[in-house]
């Protein structure tokens, strides 16, 4: 257990039950906010992707894998060409 974890536990133990419940509520809110924010971001990304595909077609954009492969090929050509 880290020193930070131990400090948190010690401070919570010194609180009364009402304060401990309040901390638990705050932790639930923080965890829920992160999940909602991530879920909403993923929904927005997926919506944008679908809109772009509908407007330009599924094959309009180069995939990240294709871009990386092209970079690797160019780098390999540079290395082998310099020998």
How would you describe what is shown here?
This protein has 83 residues and is mostly helical. It contains 3 helices and no strands. It has helices at residues 3-14, 17-56, 64-81.
List the helices and strands and how they pair.
Layout: H1 3-14, H2 17-56, H3 64-81
Which features does this protein show?
mainly alpha, 84% helix
Query: Nearest-angstrom radius of gyration?
Result: 25 Å
Helical content (DSSP H or I, runs of 4+): over 70%
Specify the number of helices.
Answer: 3
Instruction: Indicate the structural class.
Output: mainly alpha
- Average pLDDT, rounded to a whole number, is 89
Shape summary = elongated
Largest sheet: none
- Enumerate the spans where pLDDT stays under 50 for 5 or more consecutive residues: none
How are helices and strands ordered from N to C? HHH
Give the termini distance in whole angstroms: 54 Å
State the total count of DSSP E strands: 0
Task: State which percent range the strand residues make up.
Answer: under 5%
Q: Quick gist of this model?
A:
84% of the residues lie in helices and 0% in strands. It is mostly helical and 83 residues long.
